[in-house]
Amino acid sequence: MTTFVVRRVGLAAVQIFAVGSIVFLLVRLIPGDPARAVLGDDATDDQITAVRASMHLDDSVASQFFGFWWRLLQGDLGTSLVSGRAVVEDLPGRVGNSMELVFIAIAIALVVGIPLGRLAATHANRFFDHILTGGSVLGISLPVFVLGTLLLLLFGIVWPILPPARFATFAQDPVEHLQLLILPVLALAASSAAVIVRMTRSAMLETLGSDYVRTAKAKGLSNHLVIDKHALRPAMLPVLSVTSIELTTLIGSTVLIETLFGWPGMSSLLLNAVETRDYPVIQTVVLATAVIVILVNLATDLLVRVLDPRTEV
User: How many CB atoms within 10 Å of residue 221?
Assistant: First the structure.
């Protein structure tokens, strides 16, 4: 187990380094001069030269690369070229806002998806199973931005139960914040819940047909105990694996949802940075997103290995 943990942690570190290096290089392929993007078209050549020097853009690529990693290891995420603020001042709040959407959405998807998947498996090829299977196909097929737009149209305009409002943090106005959460979270959770329903159903159908479940039934155990202990519990391993995939998918989906609902998360910060060629912000946001995804996968692999030591992940 120790060897496995060391190997996975080492692989995660290599992945983070690879992603950071690729981001560093790709950012510098963005067309345009970031110094001119910051200063505007009216800037003089002397001003542009001064800004390029402050950004180390005149240094060699190798020098910029090692400088980027050296500063990063010291906790220096750089300074925004546009706002002049340290990136570390803005990033935690934006990451927190995005992760709030993602983790609440996946929690709702699990709470809804696992019981419905259990119900579909125990009523296989019957009315409830057909309804739930058809609904899950619809949920998977419907793009998140389409569902988000429909929710916003219905509950924000046609029936203004949850009209669009200016963003407020939980500390500023808890009620307003929770109201603002409802629509984007539902838009994100729908597809993941559908995937979890199908995975739970599939995994439970496999375990319900296994020898140890038949043996438990032959011993006279109650149907409820057989289903929940001997069939549902082993089925949670594949559900856990697909949940980690859905988490990473939700992180990517926040780009559309945050734009649609005006949610101030990582995506809006990144889009603004790309428009202004704000290198430090772009590098930091993309790297932070990659680190979150890698850590989610690492945690899932370790948890699956703890729950079932026979599993090779």
Answer: 15
User: Residue 50 contacts by C-beta under 8 Å, 6 or more apart in sequence?
Assistant: none
Cα–Cα dist 213/233, whole Å:
12
Average pLDDT value over all residues in the chain: 82
Q: How is residue 275 written in tokens?
A: 């428009």
Residue 166 is which amino acid?
A: R
Please answer whether residues 161 and 219 qualify as being in contact, where contact means their C-beta atoms are separated by less than 8 angstroms: no
- The answer to whether 113 and 202 have CB atoms below 8 angstroms apart is no
CA 135 to chain centre: 23
Confidence of residue 312 (pLDDT cuts 50, 70, 90): low
Give the tokens for residue 188. 């994100």
Q: What is the tens place of the pLDDT at every residue in 116-127?
A: 988 888 888 888
CA distance 139 to 155: 19
In angstroms, the Cα distances linking 253 to 109, 148, 244 are 15, 11, 14
E strand or H helix at 154, and its extent?
Answer: none
Tokens 């089925």 sit on residue: 235
Q: Sort 140 into a burial class: Cβ within 10 Å, 0-12 / 13-18 / 19+.
A: middle
Contact 278, 34 (CB under 8 A): yes
For residue 298, which of 9, 19, 99, 13 has the smallest C-alpha distance? Answer: 9
The residue to which tokens 């929770």 are assigned:
178
**pTM of the full structure:** 0.83
Q: How confident is the model at residue 311 (pLDDT cuts 50, 70, 90)?
A: low
Query: Mean pLDDT across the stretch 192-201?
Result: 92
Residue 170 carries which DSSP code?
T
What average pLDDT does this structure show over 179-191? Answer: 91
CA distance 285 to 77: 10
Rg of the chain over all Cα atoms, to the nearest angstrom:
24
Q: Rounded CA gap, 152 and 65, in Å?
A: 43
